[in-house]
Amino acid sequence: MTRDELAIDVQDMTKRFGDRTVVDRIGLQVRKGEICGFLGPNGSGKTTFIRMLCGLLRADAGRGTCLGYDVIRGSREIKRQVGYMTQRFSFYEDLSIAENLDFVARMFDIPDRRNAVRLSLERLGLLERQQQLAGELSGGWKQRLALAACLIHRPKLLLLDEPTAGVDPKARREFWEQIHDLAAEGLTCLITTHYMDEAERCHRLAYIAYGKLLTHGTVQEVIDHAGLTTWLVAGPDLHRLATTLRARSGVKQAVAFGNRLHVSGDDDRALSEAIAPFKTADYDWRRIGPGLEDVFIHLMGSSQDNFSS
């Protein structure tokens, strides 16, 4: 993979607030036209990392490039070629959809502003609602407006921070179809999400916890790298069984999935010994491949909170 193929190529990115290191020497490579899922628990440093990438926050240490520009010294150039969708809806609620888009177009000094707004309205299916006030929109339509604003200046990189939080399943699916359409046109996307079904829609994943990058790769690479063995269990009183199993050596997690348990460990032999006494006629045990959620719960459990005493 050459540098010309990479939209993001950074190493050792670090940010401290006081004596707390919230992003700790993270390196990340994202190819042009790739959808990269950026995952981790709340407070893990995802938003801080994104803000450093797009020049809104200066890194304390690190090096590399974003869109070919130095990630430390080229923030002004990077900002003009990035679309950043924040966690919170950040547009004027007393302006219409069209007025909000026109305002963003003015900020980017876009030539033929009226045509740019019209094209953005058409692309995101907002044309018939263009006079509706932003404050009157549902979550799904606010999401469309935010994405339209991110795209109006034709960026090369989209940074989307939990863009589907609070959005219904239909709107989420439509959003991801739009993202894949954009990626097929060559746009690079870095997306934070807590939804495992969305993570599986990404080309590659990076998982951080408490400021440290723990794993990265395709979905299958991330699962394989975790080295987990997982058993699916059905039977009576699973809550009590889970509580008992969690106390046994070799069991890293016992998590309810509906009316089943996923019991996992990172040592196949130790896990087999731990569950052997419970393989009775009362329970149906079946070995399965671990899923992303199993892996991420395991990673969270094995990482140390950088704000703990």
UniProtKB/TrEMBL annotation:
Entry annotated with the keyword Cell inner membrane: no
Alphabetic keyword roster: ATP-binding, Nucleotide-binding
Keyword field contains Nucleotide-binding: yes
One Pfam match: ABC_tran
PROSITE patterns membership: ABC_TRANSPORTER_1 (PS00211), ABC_TRANSPORTER_2 (PS50893)
GO molecular function: ATP binding; ATP hydrolysis activity
Domain ABC transporter as annotated: residue spans: 8-235
Annotated protein name in UniProt: ABC-type multidrug transport system, ATPase component
Annotated organism of origin: Nitrospira japonica
Family matches, as InterPro entries: AAA+_ATPase, ABC_transporter-like_ATP-bd, ABC_transporter-like_CS, P-loop_NTPase
CDD domains: ABC_DR_subfamily_A (cd03230)
SUPFAM superfamilies hit by this protein: P-loop containing nucleoside triphosphate hydrolases
